[in-house]
Amino acid sequence: MTERALGNSGLLIRPFVLGGNVFGMTADRAASFAVLDRFVERGGGMIDTADVYSAWVPGNKGGESETMLGEWLKASGARDQILIATKVGRAG
Fold first, then answer.
1. Which domain of life is it from (predicted)?
2. DSSP state of 81
3. Residue range(s) defining the domain that contains residue 69
4. 4 lies in a domain?
5. Which residue among 27, 69, 73, 80 has its CA within the 20 to 30 Å range from the CA of 51?
6. Is 53 a catalytic residue?
7. Mind listing the pLDDT tens digit for each residue in 70-88?
8. In a domain, 1, yes or no
9. 47-62: pLDDT as tens digits
10. Residue 18: beta bridge partners?
11. Alpha carbon distance 22, 29 (integer Å)
C-alpha cells in the first residue's frame, strides 16, 4: 500500500485507517483480535479510536476498545507496525 505524509508530522500513513470503536464492546476478544490480525496482514497501519465511544452504550464505562487494542498489541507484537490516532474532549 502506498504511504502518504501525515501533514508536516514526519509520519507516513497508508490510505486506509481502521475504526476501533467496536473492540471490546460489540466485538469480543476473539473477533477483535481476528479483525486486527487481518488488518495488519493486509497491510493496514493505522487504527483510530477514542475512549468515549463505548461510554455511550449502557453497561460500558469507556475505554473498552482501548483496553482490547492494548491487549492485542501486546499479544501480537505488532506495535511497531501500527500508528494509533485518538481524540480527546470533555463531557458536557
1. Bacteria
2. G
3. 14-85
4. no
5. 80
6. yes
7. 999 999 999 999 999 887 6
8. no
9. 998 888 777 778 888 8
10. 47
11. 11
